[in-house]
Amino acid sequence: MKITDFALIFIGITLPIVIVVYVNVSYTIKAEEQEMYYETIINSALQDATKQMKEVENQDPSVDYGYSGLWNNKVSVNSKLAVDTFFNSLYNNFGIKGNKWAEYYLQLFVPAVAIMDYNGIQISSMEQFTKNINGENLLVKEHVLKPKRYFSYSYVVIQNGANYDIRDLATYTGSSYVSKHTVEFTMDDYIVHRATDMYGTNYTAKGFYVSDITNNDDLVAGVSVLTNPEVRTQFKATVVDFLKDKRKEVISNIAMNEISYAINANNSYAKAAGIRYNFVFPNYAESDWYSSVQNIGIIAFVQGLSVGNKYLNYHSYGMADLTVVNRYYLTTPSASSKYVYNLYHSDRMCPEYRVSKWLTSPEYSTSKQQSASMSAKDESGNIFRGFSPCPLCRP
Fold it and tell me: Structurally, how many domains does the chain consist of?
């Protein structure tokens, strides 16, 4: 056999292999490029949503926008605006803006959008309901923002011989307890606390910083058996340490459960639309998941979009840079005041603020430097100039 015959045989064998490899490599490269393109679109939409989700400080005490610790020092997180912005950006980048049915179909590939607020989580996920479109009442599937789930946790204090222990209410199987407590955690040290003693007496809900030893006595509210001041103080310190350790776990577990439920529920809607992808909660490293849910921000999950011979399973996180606006409340001395000069306060619960004369125009300043040099009026139009820090609340 001639060498040319061997050459032809070699070419005949290797050429199909080369063509198949070339096609597969080209296909893989295109799939990777498409995946990167999708991820760029998703990240861009999330950045747009993150910028839009923060608003100016809330000045309407009747509206609960989320808070930064004190009830009078609120920050606004507009969850609906964030979700709407996210989807509008997706629609524009995918070129389907205005095509309602295409928009609804794309939403099926976004099983959950989670807004991590200061004191709770809100989920936007698919829901089926009747909606009016172009004058017609139609049964549609669409993303809907669910009510906020607060970072709430309950525990009981039980007597164990001469000691007192803390037990998770959800797993406690006993029938008696000294007191029952519910706390709503936040992204920092602030909590809202409620307590009920063994006799069923409910204690008024109060908000305070866990580490604030001058205001956190309510942590042992209802534990009337702790009559020894030293023992009571020691037990309060135990509760403080317990809650500090529990905060991250509670926030992480609540967020994971809420998001997992939404993603799993999306499967029935997707299946009805002919989508055969199985939507599941992504695998996270524990440290990555903790870091993702310990700040105010938005998390988007996009799954099931075809990219070559596989499917997109992508989640992206954007943290909102929410700046809390400080307020320093202005007062002048009254007959009941302990101090005889103009003051500014960081807390309207301050005893001195309560007995002083409150100024109304303006009611507060936004910096200590501004307080020292500014002028303000009372209701009668009298002008007062220059304010000093209150020695009690130490702004």
Answer: 3
- Taking only the tens place, the pLDDT of each residue in 291-329 is 778 788 889 999 988 877 778 788 777 765 554 456 788
Sole residue written with tokens 């936004």:
366
Note whether 49 and 165 are same-domain residues. no
From 179, 261, 167, select the one nearest 218 (Cα to Cα). 179
Do 41 and 165 fall into the same domain? Answer: no
Q: Are residues 258 and 310 in the same domain?
A: yes
The parent domain of residue 256 ranges over 11-150+250-319
- Rounded to 10 degrees, the C-alpha dihedral 23/25/28/34 comes to -80
Whether residues 301 and 339 share a domain: the answer is no
Whether residue 173 sits in one domain with residue 295: no
DSSP E strands, the chain: 54-55, 76-77, 112-116, 120-133, 136-145, 149-150, 152-160, 163-168, 179-184, 190-197, 202-209, 297-307, 310-319, 328-332, 343-345, 357-358, 364-365, 375-377, 383-385, 388-389
Residue 239 lies in a domain: no
CA of residue 335 relative to chain centroid, distance: 45
Q: Looking at the domain assignment, is residue 308 inside a domain?
A: yes
Residues 143 and 43 in one domain: yes
Write down the pLDDT at residue 23: 44
Model pLDDT for residues 132-154, shown as the tens digit of each residue: 666 666 666 789 999 999 999 99
Residue-by-residue DSSP string for 104-119 = HHHHTT--EEEEE-SS
Q: Are residues 283 and 358 in the same domain?
A: no
pLDDT in tens, 18-61: 444 444 444 455 657 777 888 888 888 888 888 888 754 445 44
Q: How far apart are CA 88 and CA 366, in angstroms?
A: 35
Asked whether residue 234 is domain-assigned, the answer is no
* ∠ Cα 38 42 44 (to 5°): 115
- pTM greater than 0.90: no
**Residues 231-286: pLDDT tens digits?**
888 888 889 999 999 999 999 999 999 999 999 999 999 999 899 899 999 887 77
Distance from C-alpha of 361 to C-alpha of 375, rounded to nearest angstrom: 9
Looking at the structure, do residues 75 and 92 belong to the same domain, yes or no? yes
* Domain membership flag for residue 171: yes
The pLDDT of residue 149: 94
Range 318-343 average pLDDT: 77
